[in-house]
Amino acid sequence: MLLNEPITAIKGIGEKKAQILNNLGIFTVEDIVEYFPRDYEDRSDVRKIDQLVEDEENTFFAWVDNMPENVHIGKMSITKVRLSDETGKINAVWYNQAFLKNAIKKDEYYIFTGIYRKKNGRREIVSPEFEKAESKEILGAGRIVPVYHLTAGISQKVIRALVKKTLDSVKTQLPDFMPLDIRKKYCLCERNFAISNIHFPENSESFFIARKRLVFDELFILQMALFKLKGTTKRNSGIIFKCDNVLEETQKALGFEFTNAQKKVTEEIINDVSKGVLMNRLIQGDVGSGKTAIAMAACLMAIKNGYQAALMAPTEVLASQHYEAFSAFFQKFGVEVCLLKGSLKKKEKDAAKESILSGKTKMVIGTHAIIQKDVEFKNLALVITDEQHRFGVKQRNVLTEKGTNAHVLVMTATPIPRTLALILYGDLDVSVIDELPPGRQEILTYAVNSSYHKRAYAFIRKEVENGRQAYMVCPMIEESDAIEAKAVETMIDEVSQTDFKGLNVSVLHGKMKPDEKDAIMSDFAANKIQILISTTVIEVGINVPNATIMLIENAERFGLSQLHQLRGRVGRGKYQSYCILVTDSKSQITKERMKVMQKTNDGFEISETDLKLRGPGEFFGTRQHGIPQLKIANLYKDADMLSLSQEAAKELNRMKDWSNLPEYRLISEKIDTLFLNSQRIGI
Ligand code: ADP
Ligand code: MG
Asked: Which CATH class is domain 246-433?
């Protein structure tokens, strides 16, 4: 049996079972080998029948005294058998598993693991797993047993047996793809040992040794693949900008003084672009920390030096808003700004492209329309992506390739925990804006249940009558624009004739045409619309300082970081702002999320908590990042391994032509195949 063979090559796996395994993401023999347990059960404590602990899982050896019998009570079938050891006797019962009658035999010796119950004077073991006493690993008597993620149609026992059988038959051919020098340097065990001990640990030491190796493998390969994808392991030389007075001029044109944090980051940018290497910098700053102003300063640097600059935003609404702000700013320097977006008419687009190619247009703003192949620049020297977390790694790359040697600045309002930043932006320098512009007030946040609706609406009404504005956000329901649209339509029908009668209420959702969206957003910005009922279209970057209330329906459906983003739409001006989270969910995770939201406005604290509560897999959707699902490593808990493996990855990359060396061939293949199936990982 070969590792890359389909699972049907394994004896006993037909089409039907294969289908079930496919549902678990298992397609090949190797997928089984790498189907790591989600947890373990300690069955090293083997008991005697007279020592069984009530309401707990117990493992014991016993003889089967009689033929199992099936009885029927209504629709239910009960299978019953009598077990004994030298200390006593006990009944085992199974419900609706009549087939077991033939699986368990009189006068044979088995290991059982099941819950021991005492009910109405009867003592029994309920639905125990059992196995002939010779195959200890599967049931795990006397040892630690693996617990796997399951799906309908497959049991722990079956999958455990399958893994065991597969390991036994491929053990000798598991190649150790990690080169010896790396294994030695980082003190990693052999892969064979790691694989067998991650499934069936000999003891806890072996388990930790095994896990260390596999976590290292996974993180190392991921980082190597990312390096390769980004293709930025070596720094090209970059265009040199002269930046005298740019900071002063920017502040003057904007009419406010930069915060110390903004000044510091601007200096870091100036330092990058004035020394002749290519800038590759991530700016992390909480919502409202003033990233746009920094982007303007950077663009001014490029343009004053005679080059073109481009800014890419994830949505048309946001691109339009940036266009307004940049136009106003660059007007003061006599620089025209061009907005390039998908919804332009062909003629307009052609004209814009012409002007970009000729170099007449210096400042280009757009959505991913900018990265379409047919947009050519004359001398693009700076590329900025706003709200970077919304773009995949690949999209960012395409834009970088547009300019031969363009400096790159990426900005994100979602503070990314350090560990995740290492993975996602391992090749970037990081600047942090850790200060908000002066005069900002803490946004007061309340989590309430839906019985508070009336009161919340009355409060919104009062604020609006005082001249303020409000957002009301409905959750995203699956990713269907049509259903979302319906949710907001229903909401507006409900409130516009009752609680908000006489006020200007409008809706905004993903199903609208970009022009409609733009029109609504500018009406909202001009306070022609007082209450905006919307889906998460408004999540990213919208800036309307007069809006002071953010009400979020079904808050349990949003991740913490998303809630924080949404909340960041208010509290942008001088007025006290409020965030009302409406949820009827009683789940523990929701409760904890709401608690954090009420407790803090600090985006970093919130994202750390998010990572803890949700795990990195779901963390603002790895799909958006194009990071494959991790099988064993936990980006939160394995931060140390993350740095170690990154160090190893960087080291290997510094080696010339390493992938041509024979001892690196296997690892190089592994790295190449990770991103091969881009469909499966969503980039
Ligand atoms: P974000 O970091 O979320 O993108 P923005 O760049 O949209 O934040 O800035 C939020 C608001 O703060 C804008 O209205 C902007 O004009 C204002 N702002 C930014 N920097 C300063 C500053 N140093 N002083 C006063 N207001 C500022
Ligand atoms: Mg922004």
From this structure: alpha beta
Q: Please, what CATH class does the domain formed by 1-43+153-173 belong to?
A: mainly alpha
Mean pLDDT lowest for which of 253-267, 336-350, 465-479, 547-561?
465-479
> Average pLDDT for residues 398-417, to the nearest whole number?
70
Residue 48, classed as helix, strand or coil, is coil
CATH for 444-600?
3.40.50.300
> 17 or 489, which is more confident?
17
Residue 649 near ligand 1, beta carbon < 6 Å? no
Q: Is the entire prediction scored with pTM above 0.85?
A: no
CA of 336 to the centre of ligand 2 (A): 21
Among 519, 464, 521, smallest CA distance to 495 is for 464
Instruction: List pLDDT tens digits, range 59-118.
Output: 898 999 999 999 988 888 899 999 999 999 999 999 888 888 888 999 988 889 899 998
Q: Is the pLDDT of residue 682 over 50?
A: no
What are the respective helix, strand and coil percentages of the chain, to the nearest 5? 45, 20, 35
Pairing type for strands 122-132 and 88-95 reads parallel
Q: Is 166 near ligand 1, meaning CB less than 6 Å away?
A: no
- 292 CB under 6 A from ligand 1? yes
> Mapping DSSP to helix (H, G, I), strand (E, B) and coil, where does residue 326 land?
helix
Top mutation candidate among 256, 317, 521 for ligand 1, by most atoms within 8 Å of CB: 256
Ligand 2 centre from 258 Cα, in Å?
15
Task: Provide DSSP, 274-293.
Answer: TTTB--EEEEEE-TTS-HHH
Report whether pLDDT(376) > 50: yes
Question: Measured from the CB, is residue 288 less than 6 Å from ligand 1?
Answer: yes
CATH for 45-142? Answer: 2.40.50.140
Angle between helix axes 316-331 and 514-525 (nearest 10 degrees) is 60
**Smallest CA separation from ligand 1 atom 26, residue:** 437
At 368, the pLDDT band (50, 70, 90 cuts) reads confident
